[in-house]
Design goal:
The protein is an alpha+beta fold. It is built from 13 helices and 19 strands. The strands form five sheets. Strands 1, 2, 3, 4, 5, 6, 7, 8 and 9 form a nine-stranded antiparallel beta sheet that branches.
């Protein structure tokens, strides 16, 4: 039976903003809202159940279906907005946000929070069991030693689904990140395609529904609208509060709004979905929007006009706290142009599927020319150079390895990158650090300044295979799965020295769950080698 600890795995439901968590004075119910810590959205706290003699009845079990107290009392979701408590010969006590104490003599199934209604305990429980049985039945098969973390990941994907932007969107985490972030949505779609290609397509469509007139995709779609420009600059991870308050909470404002988006991986995700579940009408509907989004980078995000776009703002990179940004608020790490090269190739695949041969030939020509330009202008013989505000950045980050993702590098360049990856700078018991182990900026616990991120490892595994390094790809694939399995949770990021959760990383993180599931469904053989 899949169990909840009510700390990293709260009692919540698909489509619900309510989270039930354990605290020293009892259970707490709070609402998940965009850019708002849970401490600000508490609906009730100090929830305890006592028997007729006044003794506290402890929680004895918590599953996706219900929280069970001793004495046969249960807490259940009647629907996404309604929590009910059911039992007999006991009394529930709790506090409202204004501090007023409430009590309820339990005489059946009664509403604790949400709209009033007549509920049957048996019917509510049966409906919840059916929902969860159906969801877990759709989990793709994984090896036995990965089954427990995979079930945790699969549960995480379900509970992070919320109505947002007119569709059902998968948020990164109900602990603060309550919106649909652009590239998160694309990583989420990679896993959802195994269970529901339609739901996977909705993650892409949610972004395309809110495409800007200039072709740009927004950074975030949330309950109040979109985040598509900002005057903020990111706050360092070192200054984060222990309660996660979201990504767009910065300091040192810019005097003028800057357009923000996320790395261009939409065509990559669309093609993965199509390979799993071919749908030509879907491809035809999104192709023009994908083209406009791709072209935006060259038209509006290439400040020096050299054909190699740059990130105009740290948020657009997704790597908000990378030390790259210590050198300026606009930067051109090699990952961006690598994604654009690969996206051109995927647009070619889409054009071929739509019987548009001239388009396909044009996209492949663009990809080839772009790859040649990237090597000519940014390869210095030993590494791909990162620029910030036009000047080379000395810090060594994993982004300099991302040109492997293109599969279009000259053989000697690709071999040099694979050798760098396997060197002491980036290879250890728990690869790959986001900043090189031997770089002065390396910090194993600070967000993008050293920890392992599952999306980066996932993209490197793909790039290594695409570039002809299957053995290294398999080893990184195996080590990544082993790290997540042995760390005991689906975290935002991991310490690359210990393989454990980094202290400030949030739990129940969407793309970690999604990409773990996808990697686990296709784990290389001899997985324990190198663990």
């Amino acid at each position: 039976m899949f169990t909840l600890d009510l700390v990293e795995r709260p009692f919540t439901e698909r489509g619900s903003r309510l989270l039930v968590t354990a605290h020293p004075d009892g259970l707490r119910v709070a609402r998940a809202e965009y850019e708002t810590p849970l401490t600000k959205t508490v609906e009730l706290s100090g929830l305890v159940v006592r028997d007729r003699g006044g003794r506290v009845l402890p929680v004895v079990a918590a599953t996706p279906t219900e929280v069970t107290f001793a004495g046969g009392v249960s807490l259940l979701f009647a629907d996404a907005s309604t929590l009910v408590i059911a039992g007999h010969r006991a009394q529930a006590f709790w506090r409202r946000p204004d501090g007023a104490e409430q009590s309820l003599a339990l005489t059946g199934c009664q509403v604790l929070t949400g709209p009033p209604g007549n509920w049957s305990e048996e019917a509510v429980r049966a409906a919840a069991e059916a929902r969860w049985d159906s969801w877990f039945a759709r989990m793709p098969p994984v090896p036995a030693d990965l089954a427990e973390p995979a079930r945790t990941a699969w549960w995480t994907l379900a509970v992070n689904l919320l109505p947002i932007g007119g569709r059902e969107g998968l948020v990164p985490s109900k602990y603060g990140y309550v919106g649909v972030w652009n590239w998160d949505a694309l990583f989420h779609a990679v896993a959802l395609r195994h269970a529901s290609p339609a739901l996977a397509r909705d993650q892409v469509l949610l972004l395309l529904d809110h495409q800007l007139p200039d072709g740009r995709l927004p950074d975030v779609v949330h309950e109040h609208g979109v985040l598509a420009e900002t005057t903020d600059l990111p706050r360092s991870d070192h200054a984060r509060l222990s309660e996660h308050v979201g990504r767009a909470n910065g300091t040192a404002p810019s005097p003028h709004p800057v357009p923000v988006t996320k790395p261009p991986l939409a065509a990559w995700a669309v093609w993965k979905i199509h390979e799993s579940d071919p749908d030509l009408p879907f491809l035809a509907s999104v192709y023009p929007a994908l083209v406009r989004a791709h072209d935006w980078w060259f038209a509006a995000s290439d400040p020096d006009g050299d054909g190699l776009p740059a990130y105009l703002h740290p948020y657009s990179s997704g790597l908000d706290d990378s030390p790259v940004w210590d050198y300026g608020p606009q930067a051109e790490p090699p990952d961006l142009n690598s994604y654009l090269i690969h996206q051109a190739d995927r647009l070619a695949d889409i054009a071929d599927a739509l019987d548009l041969p001239a388009d396909a030939a044009r996209w492949r020509s663009r990809a080839a020319a772009h790859a040649e330009l990237l090597v000519a202008e940014r390869w210095d013989g030993t590494r791909f150079v990162t620029l910030a505000d036009g000047a080379p950045v000395p810090v060594r980050t994993v982004l300099e390895l991302m040109p492997l993702f293109t599969g279009r590098l000259p053989a000697e360049v690709a071999a040099a990158l694979e050798e760098t990856l396997r060197s002491g700078s980036f290879w250890g018991d728990h690869p790959v650090p986001t900043v090189a182990f031997d770089d002065p900026a390396f910090d194993p616990d600070a967000m993008w300044r050293g920890p392992v991120w599952l999306n980066i490892n996932y993209l490197l595994v793909e790039g290594l295979r695409r570039s002809g390094f299957a053995a290294t790809a398999d080893e990184l694939h195996r080590r990544t799965l082993a790290m997540v399995r042995d760390a005991g949770g689906l975290y935002e990021y991991w310490n690359p020295l210990t393989g454990a959760r980094a202290p400030r990383a949030t739990s129940g993180f969407g793309w970690s769950a999604a990409l773990f599931v996808d990697l686990a469904t296709d784990r290389p053989l001899d997985t324990r080698e190198g663990d």
